[in-house]
Amino acid sequence: xxxxxxxxxxxxxxxxxxxxxxxxxxxxxxxxxxxxxxxxxxxxxxxxxxxxxxxxxxxxxxxxxxxxxxxxxxxxxxxxxxxxxxxxxxxxxxxxxxxxxxxxxxxxxxxxxxxxxxxxxxxxxxxxxxxxxxxxxxxxxxxxxxxxxxxxxxxxxxxxxxxxxxxxxxxxxxxxxxxxxxxxxxxxxxxxxxxxxxxxxxxxxxxxxxxxxxxxxxxxxxxxxxxxxxxxxxxxxxxxxxxxxxxxxxxxxxxxxxxxxxxxxxxxxxxxxxxxxxxxxxxxxxxxxxxxxxxxxxxxxxxxxxxxxxxxxxxxxxxxxxxxxxxxxxxxxxxxxxxxxxxxxxxxxxxxxxxxxxxxxxxxxxxxxxxxxxxxxxxxxxxxxxxxxxxxxxxxxxxxxxxxxxxxxxxxxxxxxxxxxxxxxxxxxxxxxxxxxxxxxxxxx
Length: 445
Ligand code: SF4
Prior knowledge:
The chain is mostly helical. The chain has helices at 12-21, 32-39, 56-69, 89-106, 112-131, 134-147, 159-163, 183-190, 199-206, 208-234, 242-263, 282-288, 296-313, 317-320, 326-329, 334-350, 355-358, 361-369, 394-400, 417-430; strands spanning 174-175, 178-179. The chain has two domains: 4-259, no CATH class; 267-430, no CATH class. Strands 1-2 form a two-stranded antiparallel ribbon. The two termini are 38 Å apart.
């Protein structure tokens, strides 16, 4: 029988279990029971001992490692199959708290490490829902939503989730400010107002298990974020346990190992490289020449900012899918300040009327789209306040900025301007016209 511990580390049962576990002195001790569960998980790779977490501390680090590796080509699900085995749930709850406490003890709440821990928590929950049997899935969903206090939830209580874009208001079904989640509630509220459709069918379409599971993962992500921030805030008053600090060191080295692997020479186009303007797609070339009011703001703030920053720092983002911040690739922000921003500001100046004269606020929005919050310029201490936006797809450009899209023959084979850029650089290189990176990569956004 799967319990809600498998999904929700913030349930009363989970907290009680952690309280009863007592002192943290044993988190690095080898547990034979944990190893047995791992080794007997269906599909688990047991050829290599380093794949088997021996202690709660190792399990904590493995949770994060799974997330860092799972989008990579060489990822093997069999190396981490135990993370989706409900039998691991009690160890896993302890590992979750070790991971979150270690993160709060060493890293700032807006740090890359904290962000990765929060994201990995959400991703693991979604993956676990995916492998649960249908009956268990419905039951656990209902139970966890109840534990998270969804009974009489008002949208305003989700303000933080909406502000940080973990949820969109348009995802929710509301009635006078109340969030409708349960089927009975939906029927009671809307049955009389639905005319030519079956209410049950409509409920499945609009809410169903998809929205419930998304809400659960986002709510737990938010609580994880808050928990890490609380631990961080308390660390000057409460000395962290030495083993928690040891776990924090393991997290730091695991994250940087993955980042090092990412920027290593084996991944040719992954790291920063010089910009090759000849390889820019028509929509970007057009934007750089200046845009007339109408499409102007979105063209500069949304399209050009993301395109230039990724093209310069991380052109293979859609292929590597490793979560990165600008400072992972440009630690002192020199490239950002001296190369990327001048190109964007120059294009903004060429617009009619010039963007910043007309709308100075947009300078702050450009900073925000690079992941540094709403500030005049990118500064290290603000990084993480917003997300570093990836370039929008051709499909979106055709809808929102149709004047900018003038497809050429390369466009027929790609779905994103950044993929155009990579393909064009590869073509130029194979024709001997350039020597800068570029891969014949799959157009995967
Ligand atoms: S198809 Fe895509 S890459 Fe080509 S011009 Fe249009 S938006 Fe740009």
